[in-house]
Design the sequence.
């Protein structure tokens, strides 16, 4: 009996959210897919999926089983890739997840160079600001801008993420420039997906309540709003470096910054043998960015130890 094949069918059904969709991916009929799932459940003596006429849902046991199956299949794929590639050649499809703005600005422009250096690799780059479950969604690596002190995934720090308070000269000319963090309460503050900023500065760590006339789940909307002169924003230098250099934006309260634990990371599932394609991509980004990334050049920011 093809036990491993049944596990793969089960994982495909869950990822595709249906037997018909999984069947199309595998070239099998829904009836065959259903039979394989039923055979797996009978062998285990548990129900893994709740079925309705329109959808499927994992049972509690099915959820835990699925997480373990994904890890098993990933390990098998990695083992096969390691064996067939001689543990050296980067090749195959590399699935990468990254935040929308960062991916567009600082990954996409460099993909050609990576592909030129690794002609055996095909990059599948998906950009999203939603949280991505790297294991469950089958990504090889994800770029995250976060505090990953408690992450269960393997993480490699690629670069610092300096975040500065900024506004346009026009906004600051009309509104009295803040002299301390307590003055921010009198200003229009622009943020997405949060109502508080955590800042580090001369007085240590403070939390600032974000208030203003604009609410959005889009970081790019906040970027356009601050450039339009609506208020003050806390932005990463990778996002606004050119605007700070040419004067379209000015730093506000330069002694205060977003918490330093937030960095730019490559995260990937814990595997004993890292696939060459994944290692090559992470090494490529680490060399491209580094402790003093190119977007910080000319901003007078301190170096960060590697």
Sequence:
């Amino acid at each position: 009996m093809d036990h491993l094949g049944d596990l793969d069918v089960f994982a495909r059904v869950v990822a595709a959210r249906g037997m018909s969709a999984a069947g199309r991916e595998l070239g099998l009929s829904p009836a065959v897919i259903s039979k394989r799932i039923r055979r797996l459940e009978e062998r285990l003596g548990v129900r893994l999926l709740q079925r309705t006429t329109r959808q499927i849902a994992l049972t509690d046991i099915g959820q835990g089983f699925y997480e373990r199956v994904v890890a098993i299949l990933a390990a098998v794929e990695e083992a096969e890739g390691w064996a067939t590639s001689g543990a050296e050649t980067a090749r195959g499809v590399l699935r990468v997840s990254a935040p929308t703005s960062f991916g567009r600005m600082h990954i996409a422009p460099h993909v050609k160079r990576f592909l030129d250096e690794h002609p055996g690799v095909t990059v599948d780059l998906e950009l999203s600001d939603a949280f991505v479950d790297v294991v469950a969604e089958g990504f090889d690596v994800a770029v995250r801008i976060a505090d990953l002190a408690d992450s269960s995934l393997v993480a490699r720090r690629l670069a610092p993420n300096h975040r500065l308070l900024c506004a346009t000269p026009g906004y600051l000319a009309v509104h009295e420039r803040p002299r301390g963090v307590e003055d921010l309460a009198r200003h229009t503050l622009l943020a997405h997906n949060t109502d508080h900023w955590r800042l580090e500065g001369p007085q240590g760590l403070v939390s600032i309540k974000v208030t203003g006339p604009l609410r959005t789940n889009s970081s790019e909307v906040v970027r356009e709003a601050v450039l339009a002169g609506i208020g003050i924003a806390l932005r990463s230098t990778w996002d606004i470096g050119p605007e700070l250099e040419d004067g379209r934006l000015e730093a506000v309260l330069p002694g205060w910054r977003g918490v330093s634990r937030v960095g730019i990371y490559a995260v990937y599932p814990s595997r004993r043998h890292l696939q060459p394609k994944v290692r090559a991509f992470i090494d490529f980004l680490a060399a491209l960015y580094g402790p003093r990334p190119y977007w910080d050049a000319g901003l007078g920011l301190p170096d960060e130890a590697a």
